[in-house]
Amino acid sequence: MPDSAVIAIELSAVVVAMESATPTVLLTHSTDRCRAPMLPAGSFDPRHHRTFELGLRDRVARQTGLTLDYVEQLYTFGDQDRLQPDAPGEITRHISIGHLGLVSYQQSLRDDHTVWTSWYDHLPWEDYRHGRPAMIDMIIAPALSRWTAASPDEATREARRQRAQLAFGFDGARWVDTRVLERFELLYEAGLASEAQRHDDVEVVISLPGEPLMSDHRRILATAMDRLRGKLRYRPVIFDLLPEHFTLSQLQLTIEAIIGCRLHKQNFRRALDRTGLVVPTGAVDTTTGGRPAERFRFCREQWRQQMAPGVQTPLAHSEYQ
């Protein structure tokens, strides 16, 4: 019997909302406790979905009841055996078209199996807001050193060493917050991500702190984190995660939560003033516990007229440099 070839197209979404100073993502938990949670996802139906985005919005709305404020396509994920090995005589390529979706608050959910969870629960080494995470030097660095030392030849050893140095800021290199996907793929290749056990050619030597997701959904999450961290600097997407009226401290804390680093308060506000992206509303917030804080709003008309960039992110500490 000839081999059969099937292409299955899935639409997946990393839906992000802020809860206080925590970036949260939407996950669906299976009734099977042995299965890892997953991103909202569903099959693309060309009979009912005119575009991928409309299909994605429809899937998310049906599964969760959420209406997405902002959606953009991330990447097409189609590695062989990304779900499970094929049955003998059958070749099925499972392709997932990943999307980033933003909502301005944690909307109530329709399904008890769908929950909001911090994205740092799954990629904890990405949060530098309280300093360099201890796990980087205590767990990740030694494990990557052993992986590098086990290289089959000198050229591979040097390439691995340089990748680790640039990805995690070892040996004086600068930590770059927009290398999320690069870091996760390095950990995956080194056998430090539990999801790698799906592949026979990757030995899982240690499972790092950080909750795994089904299939390659943690890789899709890393891609979304990368995209959002980079994009907020040249497009004002950060305001899709904020209420209509907000304080400057609330804006700064939201940006810090997304990029995982602290900002220099005075330099941040000076840079923000130059963009003209926010204007005062005339109202104040009296719930801050101290001096009432002025409320601002996103000046969308200013951005439309001048195509102003996103928000600048002057960092607070030299350790990021």
TrEMBL record:
Pfam families registered for this protein in UniProt: WHD_NrtR
Q: InterPro entries per the record?
A: NMN_biosyn, NUDIX_hydrolase-like_dom_sf, WH-like_DNA-bd_sf, WH_DNA-bd_sf, WHD_NrtR
Q: Which residues form the NrtR DNA-binding winged helix domain?
A: 239-298
What name is this protein filed under? Answer: NAD regulator
Q: Which organism is it from?
A: Kushneria konosiri
